[in-house]
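We emphasize that the prediction below concerns an isolated chain of 207 residues; any contacts that depend on oligomerization or on bound cofactors are therefore not represented. The input was used exactly as deposited, without trimming of termini.
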Amino acid sequence: MSSHEFKVAFDVGANVGQSVYRIFRAFPHADIYCFEPILSTFNQLKINVKRMTRVQCFQLALGSSKGTTQVVLQNSSLINSLARTIEANAKKDLNLETVQIDTLDRFCDEHKVKHIDFLKIGTEGFDLEVLKGGEQMLTSGRVTFVQVEAGISYTNKEHIPLQQFRQYLEERGYVLFGVYEQTLEWTGELRLKFCNPVFVLRFPARI
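Result of the prediction step, given as a token string:
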């Protein structure tokens, strides 16, 4: 898509900035918005991107509705997940942190973001909730490319299956563009666990 001009990119679930480096290099003229709700991870993210003048960081989770929730902090900040919070909260003696949640639509309206050229979502099983919070942006054709983390193996309970993403996004005018970063797992047999599919709007047009 060398003919497409990438002006705005969102990194939802930015963690400490693993993806933002690639986004920054790939789209040298884009303004990049990074979202990371966990305080310690967010602080490290800000340190890692402090020399990137086009990157803005927000201590915020994106979901299907505005509010707050408690996240169970794992031993590694790399695996904190909103999607696994409800089940884990039934247990006692957990390390919890309250995080703020907003929707993609509300955020874009508040910050006057009219169009997103590349929306990357990596939230460990919460990706579909992020998309649901961006219903207006998606259905009005104001997001061109969407990348998510999708489960492939039937044993993968951590990610939303690829089929669900295809159904949800195809109903809103998107088609599968490519499949990237396929990750294998070994549980007695070698199988594909998850991947990062990218969807593109059928008739992309900047508003």
